Amino acid sequence: MILYTMMPQELIYQTNESEFGKQKVVSYQGIPVLVNMDEGQTGTVIRIMSSDPAHFMDEACFPGAKITLTLQ
Length: 72
Fold this sequence. Notes:
Shape: flat
Number of helices: 3
Number of domains: 1
Number of strands: 4
Structural class: alpha+beta
Distance between the termini: 48 Å
Largest sheet: 4 strands, antiparallel
Strand order of the largest sheet: 1-2-3-4
Radius of gyration: 14 Å
Helix content: 10-25%
Strand content: 25-35%
């Protein structure tokens, strides 16, 4: 069977829920991003959740980047 889809493989073939427990959607400098939370207030950007093309050009926020979140 061939599955033609634009959905990420992780959404179709989900693994343990414990792996997704550390993921959060947060706003970083006005850009909505999906982050895998590390220790404290740091995290790794997994995906940019915006539809604004300018957000994808921001050099401070890209998939794989380590970011520090501040409480507002």
